[in-house]
Each structure stands twice: as C-alpha cells, then as structure tokens.
Amino acid sequence: MPLDTSYTGQKFKLVGTRPLRPDGIDKVTGRAKYGADAFAPGQLVGRVLRSPHAHAKIKKIDTSKAEKLAGVKAVITSADLPDYTNGDRGMFDILENCMARDKVFYDGHAVAAVAAIDADTARKALKLIKVDYEILPHVTDVDEAIKPKAPILHDDIFTEGVEPKPKKPSNIAKRTEFGHGDVEQGFKEADIVIEKTFKTEQTHQGYIEPHACLANVGPDGQGEMWVTTQGHFVYRNQCAQLLGMDISKLRVTASEIGGGFGGKTHIWAEPLALALSRKANRPVKLVMSREEVFRASGPTSSTSIDVKIGARKDGTITAATATLRYASGPFYGMWAELGAMTSFACYDLKNVKSVGYEVLVNRPKVAAYRAPSAPMAAFAVESVIDEIAKKIGMDPVEFRIKNAAKEGTKSSYGPVYGPIGIGPTLEAAKNHPHMKAPLKKNQGRGMACGFWFNFGGQTCTSININPDGTAVVAVGTIDVGGSRASMSLMAAEELGIPYENVRCVVADTSSLGHNDMSDGSRVTFSSGMATVIAARNAIKVLCQRAAKMWDIPEDAVVWEDGCAKPAGANAGTFPPLTLKEIAAAAANTGGPIAGHNEFVADGAGVSFATHICDVEVDPETGATKILRYTVIQDAGKAIHPSYVEGQYQGGAAQGIGWALNEEYIYGKDGRLQNPGFLDYRIPVCSDLPFIDTVILEIPNPNHPYGVRGVGETSIVPPLAAIANAVSNAVGVRMTHIPMSPPRILKAIEGGPA
Q1: Cα gap 657→110, rounded to integer Å
Q2: CA dist list (Å): 158 to 56, 171, 290, 551
Q3: Burial of 291 by CB count in 10 Å (0-12 exposed, 13-18 middle, 19+ buried)?
C-alpha cells in the first residue's frame, strides 16, 4: 500500500490524546529491568583500570600478579582488542578510546580490565596491575590547545578542510565552513556592528543510570549482550567489528534506559565486557561507577566562540559571522561542524558565514548531548542578537520576527526551508502573558530562539495481529521518551482498534532488520512512519482475508473504523467484519496476519523553539533564581501531548543546569576535580520553577501525521535565554557559561564575566 505523506489535517480519534504510559507501572514499582538488573548463571564481575594521568605513554603493563590472584578469571589489555577496524579511522578511534593502546589521552582512559568472581576480588586485581607511564605535557583548554606551543596529541593528524594540506600535525583536526553572500560587503552596509567572544564549559548529560552491560560469549563464538543503550543495533555492529565477530553471531537486547540524552549513543565499556567474557568463557557484568561515568564517558564540548553581527537602524541584519572552536576530546567528531551549521539557522540572512574548528584536548571523548553543539552556538549568537536589538532600541522579539527565517529562506547551512515554525513561535512569544508580566528590582527577562535539524535514518518495524484481535508492534528504536505509547497510538489509529489493544515492544537485534540510534529526534518521525506503513500493509492483508471469507474480489473491500466493509459494484451485501473476527479466522484463510516495513526515512522536518525566562539575581552573592520559564515549540503534530510537554520541560531543565551551575573542572594536573553529583551540581526540584509549555503544530508535509521531532530543540535556547535574562538583571553582558555566582559577581564588579 503506497504511503500517503500529504498531511490533510484529518481528525484523529486517538492521536493527540493522553493515555497512560505503558511502562509506568513497571517503573514506579521497580519491576522494570535496567542495565544492571540483568543476571546470568555463573556471571563474573568486570572492573576497569583507568589512567590517573591526562597524557602519558604506556611503556609497560604487567598483569601477571593480577592473573595469579585467586578468583580472577580473565585480565585484558589492548592486546586482547586487536585492530579489526580494517583501516577505518573512526572505528580505530573508538577502539583506542575503549582501551588505550600506546598512550593514554585523558584522566580516566581505560588501560586494562579484569573479570573476577566478585567485586572485592576484582578491585584487588586492579591494584595488582602495574603500569609504567611516561608522563607527557597535556592541554585541557580549547583555546590553549590551538596555540603554537601546545602539546600535540596525535602526530598523524593534520588539519582537514585546509588547502594546501598542512605539513605539521595539529590539535585542530578539522575546519568546516558554511554560509553564502558577501559578509564583508554586508558589514559595510550596517549602521551597527557588534562583535563578542563567548565561552562555555564542558557538561555531562547527567543521566541517572550509569553505563551497564552483561556480556556472554560462548566457546562457539556466539555472543549475547544485555545493555543500556540508545541503539542496540549500532552497539552490535561496532562491538562485533572490534572483536572480529560476525555481526550475526552477536545478539544484543536493550534494557530499559535510565536516561541517555545522546551519551548512550557511543560504546565505552561494552567491548571490554565482551572481550573479558570471551577470555573467561563466562558471562561478565560490567557496571560503571558514577565517577567512571564522569571521567570516562562522553560529555559535551567546551567551546570558545566569536560572533559578529551587523544591522541597519531599521532592524535588518546585513551580515553575520561566527568562528566556533569546539573541544572534541582526543578523538575528533563533527561537533564544531554542527555548531557552525546551527548557529544562524533561525534567521533569513543574505550574508552569513560560520567556520568551525574541531580541537583535540586531553579530556574524555566527546559524545552527543541533546541537539549536540547547538546550545553553545545559540548562546553566542542569541546574546549578540539581544545586544544589537538593544543598541538600535528595538524590542528583542520584534527584532527576531523581522529577521526570522521562513518558508523559502535559504538556510545559513545550505538547504531551502519548507514550512517551518520559527515565525509562529516568535508571534506566540510576543503575545504570551509571560512577556507582559511585571518585573521587580534585580529581576530580568530574557528570550532566545533555537533550531535543530531532526533526522530520519534506517528503520524497520513489524506489526503482528494476534488471534484475539490485539496487535503487537515490534520496533528497533529504543524508547527514551515515551515512543512505545506514541507507536501504539499510531498503530491503533490506523487499525481502528482501541489503544489498549496494542502493545509496542523493543525487539532485540535478531528479531528485526537494522535500526539506527534513537537520536536526532528521529524516533516518532521515522519509527512512527514505519509503524503507519506497517499498519497499512497489515490492513491490506486483512482486506484480502475478508475478501476470501466473502468470496469477492480483493478490490471490493475497504477498511473503515477497524472493520472490513464491502464496497463497489462487485462487493455484494455483507455485514462488516471486525479485525477481531478476521484474526480469529486467520488459520483458515492463509495463516498469521502481519504488516512489515523497512526503509530509510527521509524528510524529517526541521524544528524551532522560542523560550522566555525570568530570573532574579542576588547582587550580594551572585546567586540566580529562575522565577518563570516558558517553552514555545513546533511539534508538527503532537502524537502524545504529555510526552511532548515532558520533552520541552526536560530540555529546559537541563538547559537551566547548564546555564547556571554545571561544568567540568580540571586541575593543573589535568585531572577532573568534580566527578560526582556532589560537586557536579545538576538542578534539583527546588532549583526549578514550573515550566510552562505551548505546543504549536505546523505540520511536516513529509510525514503522514505531520510529525516533527521534538526531543532536542528544547535544550537549544535555554543558555541564551537565561544569559539574556541575567545580563538584563545585572546590567552587564554575561559571556561565560555557566553563570555561577563567582562569575556573576566578577561581572557586577567590573571583572571578566
């Protein structure tokens, strides 16, 4: 059945309602099984030895004493993870991050691992492993890392994106550039030009559940893994490649996930657990401690960003440039590239240029964090946008409305926009009561816009119709934000049966074709589309079975309201057959009834949001209190509005923590000083106001229900909105995130902010 992707604004019976979440009872009663809840008979405890140095050569590792300790069943080093990456630099970086080879690149880098009969024995074994290091100079600051005399992390990395190719190795791994027009001419046409530099510190996703997995590799080479992850198919593929296994020989089952936000899209300890199990010939459970999570799993980038914007007195932006330096850890990704792409995406600009630099530093390998790289870029750009508006005496909302991107705008990163929601979110902000509420002394209001691409990707989904008329939807995308409820709603909507009659499960890697990660806000869009197509394919089979039961042509049957009905000249007169009746007769009409779909989902609609924030700053202590917060965002179509609101509120809450408190603090020795929630302070309930939400629905024409991803955009505006609010409250532009009390006091007193 061909997919109709023309959203018609049809009236839904189930989509858009708020049924109870299917996983709620298990989670609140403790029955839900997370990564560390898996158990296998005879399992061993895995532990990892980590480097105490930020940068050092590994001269020698002696594991002999650990191997002789009673109760130790396996000890591994990088020698047990041979290079099966087939010359793939990206996979080699993953391999080297999972277990250091010739050098350690950050405090916490894994150098060896053990599997023992219990945790005490494993800890004793780690102490018996002797590592001879040659300590090397290190660099942890993104600006220091690009200076001529900075220690070089890799002697085989030469800056990509620069012509001619540099002859000397560099900590700048890659340069990327986006934009169009003539920025120099644009600045000449401006009446006002403002240029500022901003810094943001490294933060962690702060998920409550640490990384955990149970791995089991048998003597026949067949392996299984139970793991907390955002993408068990990708984990399977990468782990199999690193261990030299056939993909078909490794089966991965995803547990419930206690938060990920992008941090569980990368493998860290999972290949080590598999290698230990293979060597010990027993199952191995490996669970990271909270300290290990902070020291050795992927935080976001620290950044240093220059922004320059010019505008006429009438409020028209004539030119905009940004230079973005993003710390990638010791292995580069595409973090500065994403920052450069997103920086000016909210605006319709004739002359714009963004240049991103991926900078290598002696910190953990960077991972995605919810719209990765966009919050930092938005902080810098939206701060200068506010400064320009103030300078020309224009309301900051009106200034943004005047320059907002719209359908037909050529984006700053290249594509031309279709129907988008930045204008409607700004209009909604302008008319929201929050904008008109009075403020008191030491209080300030700020607002900011944010953008995220959204993503489609490889997706595979099955729907099986049970003999009793119920249905099971099997998806391969991890439920990180309520997707099982959304899939069930869409399947029930298509099939015409009650929501309660649909169950959605996350299938293991041996039960479905490949599915990409639950990232890029792709799940409700891509798995939702696959669910709709699979349901329509199942309906086609249901109609065929009804035709067989009535002995009429297949094209004389239509599906309406959960029933097969005869239609047309050759249909005859028969009472409708319900899905339950057709399913009950399936054994006599051709066997099981199912619908299936696999495809690469294209056309994910871009997403925009506008946030408003009120703060109060204590001028004596520099402490900031969030008084009121409003999120306005385009969802395309809110399949389950409660989950959509939760995504909006969650992103804002994380942004509040990032803006005011959260940061990695490194000592002069290159070691992380605050690897735990006591010293790395995430927001608690008393730090947050009620976060109001406004759901706008500007349909994505590329999805049958108009869906856009919503999970990531909500973290993009908070840094800027809060910075603008704090700056307005204290009368000084804040340029360094987080805006902790000491930084605010320095700004008030006239020092660097």
Answers
A1: 29
A2: 21, 8, 35, 71
A3: middle
Tokens of 452: 């995220």
Phi-psi region of 521 (alpha: psi -120 to 50; beta: other; left: phi over 0): left
Give the total residue count for the chain: 753
ω into 738 cis (within 30 of 0):
yes
Q: With pLDDT > 70 as the criterion, what percentage of the chain qualifies?
A: 98
d(CA 716, CA 720): 8
Q: Answer yes or no: are the C-beta atoms of 410 and 180 closer than 8 Å.
A: yes
**Tokens standing for 716?**
């993009």
How do residues 583-623 score in pLDDT, each as one tens digit?
999 999 999 999 999 999 999 999 999 999 999 999 999 99
DSSP β-ladder status, 352-359 and 317-327: parallel
Please tell me the CATH code under which domain 432-447+607-753 is placed.
3.30.365.10
264 residue type, one letter: K
Q: Give the pLDDT confidence of 40-61 residue by residue, as tens digits.
A: 999 999 999 999 999 999 999 9
> Domain 24-32+456-601 falls in which CATH fold?
Aldehyde Oxidoreductase; domain 4 (3.30.365)
58-101 confidence digits (pLDDT tens) = 999 999 999 999 999 999 999 999 999 988 999 999 999 999 99
Q: Quick one: three-class SS letters along 520-567?
A: CCCHHHHHHHHHHHHHHHHHHHHHHHHHHHHCCCHHHEEEECCEEEEC
Alpha-carbon distance 464 to 538, whole Å?
8
- Is it true that 24-32+456-601 and 432-447+607-753 share their CATH fold? yes
Minimal CA–CA distance to 455: which of 546, 395, 372, 396? Answer: 372
